[in-house]
Design goal:
Length: 401
Amino acid sequence: MTSVTPQAKHKKAKALKSSSRRPAKELCSECGLCDTYYIHYVKEACAFLNQQIAELEMRSHTRARDLDNPDELYFGVHQTMMAARKTEPIPGAQWTGIVSSIAIEMLNRSIVEGVVCVQNTKEDRFQPMPIIARTPEEILAARVNKPTLSPNLSILEQVEQSGMKRLLVIGVGCQIQALRAVEKQLGLEKLYVLGTPCVDNVTRAGLQKFLETTSRSPDTVVHYEFMQDFRVHFKHEDGSEETVPFFGLKTNQLKDVFAPSCMSCFDYVNSLADLVVGYMGAPFGWQWLVVRNDRGQEMLDLVQDQLETQSVMSKGDRTAAVQQSIPAYDKGVTLPMWAAKLMGVVIEKIGPKGLEYARFSIDSHFTRNYLYVKRHYPEKLAAHVPEFAKRIVSQYKLPSE
């Protein structure tokens, strides 16, 4: 039987790629799919042209999420959830290195032949550079989040051309939705997906504006994260840490810095990954792990003996804080730093924790994003917002237009 080369197979699609704009236009999340000959599938695959989380959940996990189960309504299809951290952290990792450890084990044990992950360019520590890692050293070089839009799927052509049949992909929700939509076209025998939660991403220029308006030393920031203690934690080159309370952010200057795709996203928890590792839903200093299917459990089992774990917990009530955040964000309210610090201390003591903090974060972003889509893309509202997000948003009173 005569084989068809990938180049010939997708010649028409490559011509389309070179001659057309990105179909999602300003809503493009720069996932990288349109940089490949898989652009042929973009109208079906793109999360912002064809929202299909429910259908892809069924395909990826063999069942749909139970919308009457409060945990699945918020966190998606899953078998187990837990909090974890490595007993021996990886030096230089953003947290303790769970994601890197799983990827290294999968490569060392020949479970996969390559790992799609994101390093940074030599010129810029925050400029993402997707690669197919084939060695533990290449995986370790990708540790630490790149908090900018990243074209992870731009390497899909390389995957097909390499002849790889077993692959691990690490990515965020919009990337993974597009990946799942074209999964059958990749010619893989086994695909593993390790996801991270993602919200409020920015362009590289937007990131610079955020750093310059928020950090005391924007040029020395190594990584940062919005954490469960209601503070942004910055790590600097000299090893020092800086914290800034959420409520002290210059919202009036930063309100428009986030990418339109992120303002239109309802997959904070990466619903289509096999295994999700992130901070939301866990106590401060721990990571939140969500095992969605048997492939996810297989991945977690590889590092189970390297982890300290505990059950997830939930404490507090988020609803009043979420309701108050809706008009505050809408109006770009920024508190004086002394008031922001005081509010941060109070909320850290009495505010939501664990899964309730995760729900707070989801609620506040979903209500904001629902309003954004309603105002800017009203024709997309009904089809673009998933049913689970509509149910979550319906708990709150939104501004009348």
